[in-house]
Amino acid sequence: MKPVDWYLQPRDWPQRMAAYREGALDLFVEAASGALAEAGLSAAEADVIVTVSSTGIATPSLEALAMQRLGFRPDAARIPVFGLGCAGGATGLGIAARLAAGTPGATVLLVAVEVCTTAFRTDRIEKADVVATALFGDGAAACVLRAETEGFAEVRSCSEHTWPGTLDVMGWRIDPEGLGVIFAQSIPSFARARLRPAMDAMLERQALEVADVDRFICHPGGMKVIQALEGALELRQGDLDHEREVLADHGNMSSPTVLHVLDRARRSGLPPCAVVTALGPGFTCSTVRLAA
Known about the structure:
This protein has helices at 4-7, 13-38, 62-65, 67-70, 88-102, 127-135, 187-204, 223-232, 241-250, 257-268, and strands at residues 48-52, 77-81, 107-115, 138-146, 154-162, 170-175, 178-183, 215-218, 273-280, 284-291. The protein is α/β, with parallel strands linked by helices and 292 residues long. A hairpin with a 2-residue loop joins strand 6 and strand 7 (178-183). Helix 7 packs parallel to helix 8 (223-232) and helix 9 crosses helix 10 (257-268).
């Protein structure tokens, strides 16, 4: 979100957070405006705003900063969610769906926004930093959820699985100079070995099996992660075509990425049973089952 020269100079925590607030606010406004317009709604019709972001801190939070620019009502409920990382798109979708179901007639706006580039560091060059710099990008996505109204899909259920003893798999380290990425274990290897039993358990609670899912809509953490997901879920190479396209076009934007994949999937036509899924810090797998 800044010119290249900005990243080549030493930046402290306040400068990075100022850059985050500026970039995230612009992305928030763009994504929210697009989702509301496509739904035929104005910002004043949003009753609840769920904001998912983990790449910076803004207090007041982003939806409050965007209130004047977008025209949210003063009585709109604000729910900022921090710390979900790459799982935030799927988990946020589940949170927004539960809020919509619990308040029939309410319009819930979900916005996931990340400015990953503010974590680019020149004061240290470790393997995790090189991987993150090559992989992550900035982005945002938004969607509107309402109960008992027509839409492109219905949220049927939400599930999460957090593996014990995996807090160090992925996350942020907070340094005086800014956020530092943590990749303590190989996420592709972890997903290949341990995702399937967790997915089986989550689907079993819904009286489903992997074979019953017509389309998995996955967060593409990276090309090796996509390949690991295909192996763990017994998918054919190429089944995760939208995931590959989003990764190629935008990189890993953290929380918004899986919502970009969902958008491409819905534009090409969702099958009867689809499962949105993403992995993130915790270490957690989050899923949302959709019925078209």
